[in-house]
Amino acid sequence: MPEGPSIVILKEQAYSFKGKKILEATGNTTLIDKALLVNQKIVECKSWGKHFLICLPKLTLRIHFMLFGSYSINEQTKPNPRLSLQFAGGKALHFYACSVRMITEDLDEIYDWSGDVMNESWNPSKARKKLKAIPDTLVCDTLLDQAIFAGVGNIIKNEVLFRIRVHPESKVGKLPPRKLAELIKEARLYSFNFLEWKKAFELRKHWLAYTKKICPRCNIPFIKVPHQGKTKRRAFYCGNCQLLYR
DNA sequence: TGGAATGTTGGAAC
DNA sequence: CGTTCCAACATTCC
């Protein structure tokens, strides 16, 4: 559930709770004072990268699903929610196995919306500038850097690199300008494809690289690296058609 | 059925 | 003192 597009889906589902008052807040979270939430109205629902944000008049709830987190709407589908918010008419939001935090600062001070690949104010030139500053970093690590590509996760990383035919262990500073531009463009483009496929419950069938064994372009076995780069995440790539720049 | 995985943090270690 | 490494968190699937 964790990559950026999935959080956008949640945000859109949560829009129907805007203007509704929290009647009760329960759950096993210890990091927030649940009493502060009661009788507060949801003013807005936002997302930044993998963060889901529920805005109340005086504070914002930040939900991060980590690796295992999940949610359900209205019906509680699992035991021991981390946080449950009850509304009138039996409506509810339930969050499981996630990190819940309270934000009291102005969101615009904390979040650079232009760094979120799913955001309408996504700024490719800023991403390019950030990448130029870290030329020796492996591209696989740059895609997972939330300060550059907020919302991109390991599935998107593998798919983007396959699409643009770049070996994950290429140094970002060695990419020709056109490839660098492609990297930035595809990070956003693929994320929106991911969003549409996920909405249609057909995400997996569109995977070309992630968890795949054979390269669909070359028909030869993919290389699988269990813990690649500084981020130590799974990599699936073709040693033939994904070029190594170094 | 043990191990690994769509992720991040915080503190130890160097 | 800055950087790097690793355990911890906690659920689901194969």
Short summary:
This protein has 246 residues and is of the alpha+beta class. The chain contains six helices and ten strands, in the order H-E-E-E-E-E-E-E-E-H-H-H-H-H-E-E.
Question: What would you note in describing this structure?
Answer:
The chain contains six helices and ten strands, in the order αββββββββαααααββ. With 246 residues, it is of the alpha+beta class. It has two domains: 4-110, MutM-like, N-terminal (N-terminal domain of MutM-like DNA repair proteins, Alpha-Beta Barrel), CATH 3.20.190; 114-237, Helicase, Ruva Protein, domain 3 (Orthogonal Bundle), CATH 1.10.8.50. A four-stranded antiparallel sheet has the order 1-6-7-5, with no helix packed on it. β9 (223-228) and β10 form a beta hairpin. α5 (154-163) packs across α6. The two termini are 34 Å apart. It binds a DNA duplex (14 and 14 nucleotides) through residues 1-3, 6, 50, 64-70, 78, 96-97, 99, 144, 146, 153-156, 210, 226, 230-234.
Q: How are the strands ordered across the major sheet?
A: 1-6-7-5
Low-confidence stretches: none
Going by CATH, the architecture of the largest domain would be Orthogonal Bundle
β-strand amount: 15-25%
Strand count: 10
Helix content: 25-40%
CATH-defined topology of the largest domain: Helicase, Ruva Protein, domain 3
Cα-to-Cα separation, first versus last residue: 34 Å
Gross morphology is: elongated
Q: Features of this protein?
A:
four-stranded antiparallel β-sheet; N-terminal domain of MutM-like DNA repair proteins; DNA-binding; alpha+beta; Helicase, Ruva Protein, domain 3; 6 helices
